[in-house]
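Practice record 12: protein with pyridoxal-5'-phosphate.
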Amino acid sequence: MTSQKFILRSELTTLKPYNAGLSLQDVAEKAAGKPIAKLASNENPYQMPNVIAEAMHQEIATAYRYPDPQGRALAKSIAEFCGCDAEQVILGNGSEDLLNILARTILRSGDEVVTLYPSFPLHEDYAIMMGAHVTRIGLVDHNKIDVDALVKAVSRPVRLTIFANPMNPTGLWLTADELDRVLAAQHPQSVLCIDEAYLEFASYQSDGQSYLPATERLKHHDKPLLVLRTFSKAYGLAGLRIGYGLTNNSTLRLGLDLVRTPFNANSVAQAGAVVALQNPAAIYPVLQQIVEQRQMLLTGLEALGLFVLPSLGNFLFFSTSEPATQIAEKLICEGVIVKPWKQAGYENWLRVSVGVEQENRQFLSALAGILTQNT
Ligand SMILES: *Cc1c(COP(=O)(O)O)cnc(C)c1O
């Protein structure tokens, strides 16, 4: 192949391909027969509830037709589930699709985008792709969200403030009071996007004070707010690609609708998602397992002397004394896939997703072995 850089828009030249990690086949070779524990992408390690799988199976029969471009049935279910109107809903081919749509809808060259750091890389990448500048708000003492700095940043007329709550990769979160401070401080001409990919884990058994879904404030909020959700994590539909956004702003809703491709949410995933929302309790056993196993992993990592951040997600973020990529390489030889973080200042940090108990134990014992070799 020949290479001709000038073909690309200059905004693309600083971007790197998404850090999706090795293929399962590559890992299987390196692991030489050991079982594989895939703990790198925050997927749900359990199969999706049967009712969802059955609904999708039925829908396949009519998949020779295009899906409903407005996703009316699903938008109605989402509206009922979230206590808002169907007109406030926008569907995405995963919520990553909506991140991309949002960037193309509102960002212009030279705009400022604020995010929490370390960040979900796509929150930054799509902004950069549009020529926007990203302002990062780092953690305090490596273990707390800098709420004061965030409040200050959103009060300026920046084009967009975007972050996940709970955050990925850290697992840290804003409490209800902190979220309210941010919402109150938001500049009226600035768009706020809160990515709630891990909402179900965070709100499971929550009292509403320690963690509050932003949708609880959507109805009475008078500045442009977009809340993103996904069926990829708690609902176990990562391979189906379905997510949604909820907004209080009809202009933003219209813009997102203009920019997306007309059939961006496929019919099979739409059908599965409707049933998922009709049976919210179907995922409770999974949430219970994940929360218990997250605690087990946390205790295990701390017993190895590692610094681990508190997390409300289905993952933990921890630091080690050697480069994360080296640890991750060695873990792969033990059949364990985790995510070495690659953003500046976090090269010694790894993110591990909560798997099933056996996978988590495999990870802890492999890591213990690697760390002892090093001492
Ligand atoms: C996993 C994740 C998503 C989900 O993306 P989908 O495209 O819905 O699979 C979105 N945002 C964050 C922060 C995530 O971690």
